[in-house]
From TrEMBL:
Protein name (record): Dynein light chain
Source organism superkingdom: Eukaryota
UniProt keyword annotations, A-Z: Cell projection, Cilium, Cytoplasm, Cytoskeleton, Dynein, Microtubule, Motor protein
Annotated Pfam families: Dynein_light
Assigned protein family: Belongs to the dynein light chain family.
Subunit-level organization: Consists of at least two heavy chains and a number of intermediate and light chains.
Main subcellular localisation: cytoplasm
Length: 106
């Protein structure tokens, strides 16, 4: 029983330490980057158990705010190769190992 409690405590500590957003790559302007990053964090926190709903929330908000044709991928352990419009890509990590990729392609 003590091992289970220790494991959960270590996992909680790890998630708390890695709960900040970490931008891996972006070419967005500063204002758009900050808004997109905050939106991604909000969506991932709101739908912490459902990545599909979080991605849908991000996509719909980006479409309304910055025009249509935004795409969002959220998950762990994936690779990608995409074509995107210049100054419309954000690739970040949140919560340690959860990756979020947001890009515009028309």
């Amino acid at each position: 029983m003590a091992d289970t409690g220790e494991g959960k405590k270590e996992e909680a500590d790890y998630k708390r330490l890695h709960s900040f957003p970490l931008i891996r790559h972006t070419d967005m302007p500063e204002e758009m980057r900050v808004e997109t990053m905050e939106l991604c964090v909000t969506a991932c926190e709101k739908y912490s158990t459902n990545n599909e709903s979080a991605a849908k929330m991000i996509k719909e908000t980006m479409d309304k705010k910055f025009g249509s044709s935004w795409h969002v991928v959220i998950g762990e352990g994936f690779g990608f190769e995409i074509t995107h419009e210049v100054k419309n890509l954000l690739y970040m990590f949140f919560g340690g190992s959860l990756a979020v990729c947001v890009w515009k392609c028309s």
